[in-house]
Amino acid sequence: MSMDSVDALFASAQAGDRRALARLLSIIERGGSDAQMVGKLAFPHSGAGYTVGITGAPGAGKSTLTSALVGELRRDGLGVGVLAIDPSSPFTGGAILGDRVRMQDHVLDPEVFIRSMATRGHLGGLALAAPAAVRMLEAAQREWILLETVGVGQVEVEIVEAADTTVVVVNPGWGDAVQANKAGLMEIADIFVINKSDRTGAADTRTDLEQMLDLSGLGHDGRWRPPIVSTTATTCAGVGDLWAAIQAHRSFIEASGELAHRRAERSSDELERIIRARITARVDARRASAAFDHARAEVLGKRLDPWEAVDQLLTDS
Amino acid sequence: MSMDSVDALFASAQAGDRRALARLLSIIERGGSDAQMVGKLAFPHSGAGYTVGITGAPGAGKSTLTSALVGELRRDGLGVGVLAIDPSSPFTGGAILGDRVRMQDHVLDPEVFIRSMATRGHLGGLALAAPAAVRMLEAAQREWILLETVGVGQVEVEIVEAADTTVVVVNPGWGDAVQANKAGLMEIADIFVINKSDRTGAADTRTDLEQMLDLSGLGHDGRWRPPIVSTTATTCAGVGDLWAAIQAHRSFIEASGELAHRRAERSSDELERIIRARITARVDARRASAAFDHARAEVLGKRLDPWEAVDQLLTDS
User: Fold this and answer.
1) Which of B64, B68, B98 is nearest to B80 (CA)?
2) Exposed site from A30, A135, A160, B69, fewest CB < 10 Å?
3) Which chain B residues are within 8 Å of A310, Cβ to Cβ?
4) Rounded to whole angstroms, how far apart are CA atoms B118 and B84?
5) Is residue B131 in some structural domain?
6) Whole-angstrom Cα distance, residue A60 to residue A54?
7) A10-19 tens-digit pLDDT
8) In this prediction, does ipTM exceed 0.85?
9) In a domain, A147, yes or no
10) Is the pLDDT of residue B131 over 70?
11) CA–CA distance, A98 with A110 (Å, rounded to integer)
């Protein structure tokens, strides 16, 4: 794609053209040099919006909760961008979006932009694409960006790291389902939501979470203690409380300097990812090379050991 | 560690000193330059033994089955090395081994060498360490090497790729437990074992597997069709059949050229892993550098975008 046409798309997206924005996000999703062009244009706008990550086990009701939260933001007259990211799906944008009936309340609202992103092959790509997509939404003047992931694995956690405030959604009786991941969730949660809190076991789940938070030492020495919000997203019960908790967390980390610190850390992480992606591309190119084939033959013939072979490969180019 | 002392340990291990062998495997497990020294010494012996990978979901009875299989090998007078690899455990060697009561039948047999390996921090390390450990056992003249993993995730699959023949252990009713991973297991299995086959559902599980194999198209065009062996490892029932199936698979892939092909592929994969490890070390070093801090500050100040910053970092050194 030419620089000129990317420039033109970008200008249209900034002026409010949703189709142009959708195309730019597709370009970011695909990765490569076009994605980098878009990323460079959007970069100066990074930090212009505020990003809320919403994560939790499949079936926890994240999509319904996100939709209800969009309603709260809209009542306050705020522009919203929603990115729903599914690392495990081979489908992109339209395909998933069609299924996301819960978002249908907002699809006709011009101040709400909703977009799904999926893998297109390689997982590492999404960890690179997510911050770039957030930035593109910031460049398109979305004040609030909701970043929803489908699962709660390592990839999802990496993606949610692109958010300023992270909401972890659990359900009554969650303990059994995500036993192994509890400690990980504790590390990333700024706010816990017990969704479907009208079900049995909600009180036990709250006690369980409070105990884990007590043990974690959060809330002392000027550190934020994640509040626990009970919601029933299908009826919007408690969603106002969640919105209040998000705003409280934002104020807290803005005042304490934690927001600036987090964003600086993210910037380092992004640099590291870009370095890794560049170097991986070089390794892949090298694997397809005659030098690699030669090295491999030498190793198979036991004329070189693998370390000597790699020494030669990395010295030669 | 000095080259001389590594040389001396290596000579002892080759001469049958089990403690020297254990120490060398610990060195391989730790990674780094000492591991590379050992790897270089062992390299000429690669392919001298034959490696059988045994994988399957936790609780499938892999450890009991491995122990029973060792019994079969010993009845045939063969020397055996067992590597039990647990990517999720922070414990190494001795610690796990203490729990592996099922292996106790063999701990006093000088012709059986049993060793556990765990993560020591980073997962990628085991995928590098496993083939090196196998090679060390080959150098120590183990004719048969059993490589047992604890789970069946992506890491375990990478580890099992170091094996010549891969045995996938399932249980009656496995379908629900590993639904998501069925296709992946189909790809790696050379032999399926239905262990605990005295339990209800064993016949259904066999039908299920046969249908999957029918769909896979394996067994045609000169390709191997994985046999399904029923065992009850606790009573050794069917373990003789498993041993026969392993020998049949070995003969098949030796005759067809598939063994040589697999080993060549593994050699490429190992080269690639070594390249990645080297480059990752370089990236890590760079992240700790003043140049990285400078680049990061430039990006935070929005004087450079992240791609420009990485360009500068990768050009400078």
Assistant:
1) B68
2) A30
3) 271, 274-275, 278
4) 9
5) yes
6) 11
7) 999 999 999 9
8) no
9) yes
10) yes
11) 18
What chain A residue is nearest to B47 in terms of C-alpha separation? A300
Closest Cβ opposite residue B296 in set A267, A280, A310: A267
Contact: B275, A283; criterion CB under 8 Å: yes
Q: What is the pLDDT of residue B245?
A: 98
Using alpha carbons, select from A162, A160, A164 the residue that is nearest to residue A149.
A160
Considering the domain architecture, whether residues B143 and B184 belong to the same structural domain is answered as yes
Residues A92 and A193 reside in one and the same domain: yes
* CA atoms of A120 and A138, how far apart (whole Å): 23
The reported pTM is: 0.64
Q: Which of B43, B280, B295 sits opposite A271 (nearest CB)?
A: B295
> How close, in Å, is residue A278 to chain B by CA atoms?
9
Do B201 and B117 share a structural domain?
Answer: yes
Query: Residue B44: phi, psi to the nearest 5?
Result: -60, -15
CB contact under 8 A, B307 and A283: no
- On whether residue A66 sits in a domain, the answer given is yes
Helix, strand or coil for residue B128?
Answer: helix
Residue A253 has pLDDT above 80, yes or no: yes
Residue type, A183: A
Tell me the per-residue pLDDT of A84-102, one tens digit each, with 9 for 90 and over.
Answer: 887 655 444 433 443 444 5
Q: Count CA within 13 A, CB hemisphere, residue A289.
A: 15
* pLDDT, tens digit, 9 for 90 and up, residues A147-170: 998 766 666 777 788 899 999 999
| Number of domains comprising chain A | 2
Residue B59 is part of which domain span? 47-256
Q: Looking at the structure, do residues B137 and B192 belong to the same domain, yes or no? A: yes
A63 and A170, same structural domain?
yes
